[in-house]
Specification:
Elements (H helix, E strand, L loop, with lengths): L1 E6 L5 H12 L2 E3 L9 H6 L1 H26 L3 E4 L2 H14 L5 H15 L7 E6 L2 H11 L9 H16 L5 E6 L9 H16 L4
Helix pairs in contact: 3-4, 3-5, 4-5, 4-7
Length: about 200
């Protein structure tokens, strides 16, 4: 199986990916953050580095897709290639951080890759208000994230909601992280597990 966790910056994707991987015995695939050569530069100057960053993520995520197919294991993925193409890149373009010619080049590249993509068996979307995102970003204390603008997070949230409202590619589970604090409360994580079991195996429905 291929399970994927989607959500805005600071929604808890990496945390939940690790927790579910441990609980179910799935192999986790995490987003490349520590070794990303563009991320810190991007937050310092979004206009200069937006295209480079998005192409890096597109390449990294496509490699993950290929690896998932080759391994033929139960894998849970931290963020999907669709989020880069349908949310982050269009948002950067709309906000004036990515020139039209770069965005069209990026979109053409994704369109080519999309022919080889297969949607995950279950997409878990972590829904969070901007205030929740800001709080969790501050808690994890990554220095380069201190410059993230509130309107940037809000715009991303709007695009996430639009994407999820039209998602028809496979099974979808929405987790409201404003109320379900799975990283802090064992009973909340237990509720998440029940929801995942229900979607994948038809249990507790």
């Amino acid at each position: 199986m291929h399970i994927a966790v989607a959500g805005n910056i600071g929604s808890g994707k990496t945390t939940l990916t690790g927790m579910l991987a441990k609980h179910f015995g799935w192999e986790p695939m995490f987003e490349s953050v520590v070794n990303n050569p563009y991320l810190a530069s991007f937050y310092e100057d979004m206009q200069r580095w937006s295209f480079n960053l998005q192409v890096y993520f597109l390449n990294s995520r496509f490699r993950q897709v290929i690896e998932i197919r080759q391994k033929k294991k139960d894998i849970i993925q931290d963020r999907t290639i669709y989020e880069d193409a349908y949310i982050f890149a269009p948002n950067l373009h709309a906000m004036g951080y990515m020139p039209t010619r770069d965005f069209e080049n990026y979109a053409s590249l994704f369109e080519l890759m999309a022919q080889f993509l297969q949607a995950p068996d279950l997409l878990i979307y972590l829904r969070a208000d901007t205030s929740t995102l800001v709080s969790q970003i501050q808690k994890r204390g990554r220095e380069y994230e201190n410059s993230i603008r509130i309107d940037y997070l809000q715009n991303l949230n709007e695009r996430y909601e639009e994407w999820i409202s039209n998602y028809k590619a496979g099974k979808l589970l929405i987790i409201d992280v404003n109320t379900l604090k799975f990283a802090e409360r064992a009973e909340d994580f237990g509720e998440v597990i029940e929801k995942v079991n229900a979607e994948l195996f038809g249990l507790f429905k």
